[in-house]
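Justification of resources, computational component.

The compute hours requested in this renewal are based largely on the per-chain cost of generating structure records like the one below. Each record pairs the submitted sequence with a full structure-token output. That output is archived, and it is also reused by downstream analysis tasks.
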Amino acid sequence: MKLAVLRGGKSAEREVSMRSGEQVANALRGRGHKVTQVDLDGNTWDVLRDGGFECVFNALHGRLGEDGTVQGMLELLALPYTGSGVLASALCMDKSRAGKVMAGVGLHVPEFEEIEIKQGVAAEVVERLVSKFGLPFVIKPVREGSTIGLTIAKDVDAVASGLVLAARYDRRVLVQRFAVGTEITVGVLATPELQVLPTLEIVSENPVYDYDAKYTAGKSHHIIPARIPEVARAAASDAAARAFGELGCSGMARVDIIVDAGDTPWVLEVNTVPGLTELSLLPDAARAAGIAFDELCMRLVGHAVGRHAHHVGPAAI
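The structure output for this chain reads:
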């Protein structure tokens, strides 16, 4: 097949996307396909329109790649593409609205509030948030990934600086109660049969599982299956599958969860284009389920082509 791999782009996750796209392209070439890597820019429409591609593998992370915009372009170009459709992509990228949907269907989501920061942070805002959530609590941009712009605020000064940091990436800022417990992630595939991958526990050498810990070799470790009771594993897997379905996801996603001392899974967010680098979580979980990386990529391509051929809306599978 003649395939395009979309990578790079303009988001804060550009570097990670470049690495994801490179690994995907190598895997697909290894399966005998002709692959062109396409960096998202002003010429992308023309390149994809005129390239004769049979499918586009979307390895773009963050804004303009994971938020429904590229998916809309590919819909207009009538090109098969991997992953979720326009609506699910946009919804999952918006942590605030996705959180409301998940909480609304009964999933456990840590209490949160969205605030808009246009200029500066008033002292009374900081005081109100501390009073409402207690310390520590989490501050992050509503529409970013890879923990970019994230702060775990442990004192009043950190609250103020954390709000300012998050607002650099998005004036819509999410403030969320800090969930204490074991940090895990659960991969979900739907190509089209639903498959929940083994639970993966994240152990970070840094105080927070941040950008550095995620993408620097040796800074984090993946434990599969997660060291949580079986009842908690089952509950987390069920929560991941429900979140995937309720948000209308397709193809693949990674659901980030905190499991507390009472074995309750607290869903933090759903990533529709999770990292696909050599250090990323979803490929590790897939390997634990017996799915090699090249097979994972081929499943996603096959699903995208089949979905397109049957004229089924991207968010419907």
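Residues 112 and 176 are 4 Å apart (CA to CA). The longest helix spans residues 14-30.
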